[in-house]
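re: ur question from earlier - yeah i can do the single chain one, its not a big deal. heres the input i used so u can compare w yours
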Amino acid sequence: SGITGFGIYVQLENTVEGFIRIDSLYDDYYDHIEEKYMLIGRHTRKIYKLGDKIDIIVDDVDMDRNEIDFIVADLK
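and the output i got, formated as tokens:
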């Protein structure tokens, strides 16, 4: 549901929201292109853009802060 220089905000079909941290995208170094709402890999040129469907896995749940961290399933 959003892309920043820190990562990707994700909303699941059941409206649960979480975050994919940019440092968990370890296959490349990703640049944030703010005006295009996207991250692009410097070497792989892989693009993550607003609205993309991404297969994810739950990485961490912090009940005290009501936060869920996801990782991209393909990178596990």
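The first strand starts at residue 2 and ends at 4. not sure if urs matches, ping me
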